[in-house]
Design brief:
Radius of gyration: 19 Å
Number of helices: 6
Shape: globular
Strand content: 5-15%
Distance between the termini: 41 Å
Number of strands: 2
Structural class: mainly alpha
Order of helices and strands: HHHHEEHH
């Protein structure tokens, strides 16, 4: 005889399903917007995360990927003239990634497209902030 899951287990399963569903919707939204700009979803994510000059390691952390994967993506963006590698101002061993003028312009266009019809746009700003706070509490950062 099997016992049914305890209510907390059911709630967690349902919540995980909702978070996963939202993540899939967001990924699909990013993919559609990226393709419309001639980017891959990973390239769009890299541009979205380029809020200023940063190292490859910092970009990889923001993208939740390995630095080698970020390097591959940055190589492609660099070939398109969207990102430049420059000497790091304080670390001789590191390079700093910087958006070019064209990269800034494309990033701004991407950001405009990402907010249009976003799955999160169904929520009010207050609801988005509440969801953000709850997710930050749930995510364990090392």
């Amino acid at each position: 005889m099997t016992t049914s899951p305890e209510p907390p287990a059911i709630a967690e399963r349902e919540l995980c399903g909702l978070v996963n569903g939202l993540a899939q919707q967001i990924a699909g939204h990013v993919r559609e917007r990226a393709v419309s700009l001639g980017l891959t979803p990973a390239q769009a994510t890299a541009l979205r995360e380029m809020t200023g000059p940063m190292t490859m390691r910092e970009l990889a952390e923001r993208m939740s990927c390995e630095p080698s994967n970020a390097t591959f993506i940055v190589d492609k963006l660099e070939k398109r003239g969207l990102i430049e590698r420059r000497a790091h101002p304080t670390d001789r061993r590191a390079k700093q990634l910087v958006l070019t003028t064209e990269g800034h312009a494309l990033r701004e266009r991407l950001l405009e497209l990402l907010v249009q019809d976003s799955p999160l746009a169904r929520l009010t700003i207050r609801q988005q902030r509440a969801l953000q706070n709850l997710l930050e509490q749930a995510i364990v950062r090392s």
